[in-house]
Amino acid sequence: MAARGFLSLASATEAALIVAAQARDQAAFGELVKRRQGWARALLRRMCSNHAEADDLAQEAFIKAWERLTDLETPAAFPGWFRRVAVTTFLMAKRKQKAIFEEIDDASPIADEGSTPEAAAGAKIDLEKALAKLSDAERLCVTLNHGEGLSHSEIVDITGLPLGTVKSHVQRGTEKLRRLLEPAT
Amino acid sequence: MNDFDALLKRSFAEAPEPADDGFSVNVGRVVAHRVQAAKARNAAYSVGMAAAGAAICYGAYALASVYGQEIAATAGLELARVHGALSSTPSVGGVAQGMLQSFGAGLTQMLLVFGALAGGAVAYRSAQE
Fold first, then answer.
1. What's the pTM value of the predicted model, to 2 decimals?
2. Which of A39, A63, A149 sits opposite B31 (nearest CB)?
3. A64-108: pLDDT as tens digits
4. Partner B contacted by A25 (CB < 8 A)
5. What number is the ipTM of this complex?
6. CB atoms < 10 A from the CB of B59, how many?
7. How far is A60 from chain B (nearest CA, A)?
8. Which of A66, A83, A144 to mutate to test the interface with B (most CBs of B within 10 A)?
């Protein structure tokens, strides 16, 4: 595909790029990375709350995707498939760091963020900063639920966490975000 | 969905996405390095397999040059013995011919007996009538 020139690569559909990348075309995969990097890095930045670590994990996820791209059955399934690769990469990294997700009973208590100076002043804290105040598990579940639009059962499927735990993490995480993001009344 | 959930979804959707070419260049570089490493590994594997094949062929050649004549002589002798054994046994065609002749003679006798019985039966029936 590289021989077809930069213009044709840039104008190719994502499906065509995926099919070419499955045939081990590095240029097509490079274009795919260029198009999908924003989404992938944003997803991992929300999950990690650390930009450098998130970018490292995004790079690792793309490399895993390159190695396993032949497992992808249809190009249309790429976003969901890649999301799973990214989440698995994130979970493996956290397990390596011994950051075992705490059970809901041990979850960090909901701090009274309403009493922080920003909230007290009615300032709107941005989403990224608010997410950084959640636990890893809460951030993961909230990001997948509200950011990626996945249902609780889809989050269970992708993370391997029990359904009750996912529901609790989403509920607690959302409640914390509400306190952080909603203007103080 | 309440107002806050909608606000949250909108905040996620509107959050800026990082966009710089450095990231994709880095990924491309790592992928190219992996591909090169895989090619080098495959080449090393092919060279290793070729060397192993050559070593086996050389070993077989060395064995053949030492024991080849003896093996060939023994094989030739065994072949000759087998051929002799086969040629001394009665031929299959002859056996089959004999069997057919016996069967033919037996069939004639059977026909004679059957004819006699049938004739007797006809004579008995005529006598009865």
1. 0.65
2. A63
3. 999 999 999 999 999 999 999 999 999 999 888 865 555 444 445
4. no
5. 0.70
6. 10
7. 8
8. A66
